[in-house]
Amino acid sequence: MNPLGHPVALKLTGAEAAESPHLPGLIAGIATEAVLADKGYDSDANRAAIRRQGARPCLPPRKNRSEPIEYDRHLYKERNVIERYFAWVKQYRRVATRYDKKAANFLGFVWLASIAIMLA
Asked: Domain residue spans in the chain?
């Protein structure tokens, strides 16, 4: 997402697949100052991938970390833009209920809904 809440990259994963391992591929080649994500993305590998991109990670640490990691709590509050985007895109019933059987069709409609949101 860019600061206005518009998606920069979308990737569809399986229903039971973890999202965290896909973070390095999503941010590859995208210039940014910081990457904001929730606790589910907190891993040493993801933090290293973010730093390799020249950005700083803004991820709250998981509770099971042996040493707590500091993060910018003020900047992390901006993550609400991401959550609002998902709320807007789920207003499209076709996205919320996943009527499409093919992943390519579903992802295409998510992009179409995203464009409609940007134009509104």
From this structure: 20-119
